[in-house]
Amino acid sequence: MSEKLQKVLARVGLGSRRYMEEVIAAGRVSVNGQVAQVGERIEPGDELRIDGRKVQFQIEDEIRRRVLIYYKPEGEICSRNDPEQRPTVFDNLPAIANDRWVMVGRLDINSTGLLLFTNDGELANRLMHPSNEIEREYAVRVMGEVTPQLKNNMLRGVVLDDGPAKFESFSEIGGDGINRWYQVVVKEGRNREVRRIFESQGLKVSRLLRTRYGTVILPRELRTGRWMELDKNDIDNLAKAVELKPRQGTGLYGMAKRRNERMQEKPLAARRGGFLRQQRRDTEEAAQNTGFEPRERRQDGNSYGNREPRQDGNSYGNREPRQDGNSYGNRERRQDGNSYGNRERRQDGNSYGNRERRQDGNSYGNREPRQDGNSYSNREPRQDGNSYGNRERRDENAPRKPFGNKSFKKF
């Protein structure tokens, strides 16, 4: 089975289809040694080169179809690259070898909920195309009262800047006060369509959460910022909704299947999104950990770190000079001429650090010899003839005790 050349190059991950068409038109792509043309089809046995380098490829029908569901948090954008360096929904997705993830639909930076990703470009295009009328279900929190008249207007249809739009269904699901939750369904995926329909009736959407896309429902065990891969039955039902045939090898096996089972039994913790929101949380957590709260301002207008000047004109860090002319760090000289650090010499001519010599001619560090002729460090021999350092000889005929632990048994 053949496939269009620009579609194959885009699926390999070299760029979008439109960019690949420009590359082909520039004569940089060759098939079986011949310069390729835009719209040319390629078969599995053909040799594909771009700028002289060989490109490994597979026909789409031979690739295992995969679909991920992702719980988008607030603060992430639906784009691969952002000039402002904001977090994107692709940052937390798993890598896929020799392929790329295609996003199905979009959510604005302030919206949360279900996003689909697949490696099948045809499946993604059919799910997004308005002609297939794939339903998108949202939970919406609205500020303001939704009267029956406003509800009927949104169900019959309103006119927006890019054409008419309406809700397929509209039901209330709870809420208190001025903030009420509603469940709505649309069959198109235009930019901020749900928000604009409410705004056309003078209502403001404070929160928007996508809960369903086609046959896929956002599971309860999936937390914010986490992803989960769909199994064969869910993928086949999604493909059937857009009239695509199932593929062989689709589904989860081995480690991937066990990972999904573990996530259902013990869901992973939510991964919070949004740079500004995370920065605010870090600041609040740091304040709670330290236990200090900012102190209120003093009633006299001065802060606690700044004290008012003294009435005598001196600051608190400078003390007034002493009346005797000496500073506080210098003590007056002693009357005997000696300083406090030097003591006077002893009357016997010896200094306090040197002691006089003993009358018997020995110094204090040397002791006189013992009367029995032995020195203090040598002890007299024992009466049994053995020295203190050598123990008596053992009797070889005496019974010996077993070595080691008595309770030890061989096994």
Descriptive account of the structure:
This protein is α+β, with helices and mostly antiparallel strands and 411 residues long. Among the domains are: 3-62, Structural Genomics Hypothetical 15.5 Kd Protein In mrcA-pckA Intergenic Region, Chain A (Roll), CATH 3.10.290.10; 67-244, Pseudouridine synthase. It has helices at residues 5-12, 17-25, 121-128, 148-156, 193-199, 232-241, 255-265, 275-290, and strands at residues 3-4, 29-31, 34-35, 41-42, 48-50, 53-54, 67-72, 102-104, 112-118, 136-143, 158-160, 163-165, 169-176, 179-186, 204-213, 216-217, 227-229. Helix 1 crosses helix 2.
Summary, kept brief:
This protein has 411 residues and is of the alpha+beta class. Helices cover 19% and strands 18% of the residues. Among the domains are: 3-62, Structural Genomics Hypothetical 15.5 Kd Protein In mrcA-pckA Intergenic Region, Chain A; 67-244, Pseudouridine synthase (2-Layer Sandwich).
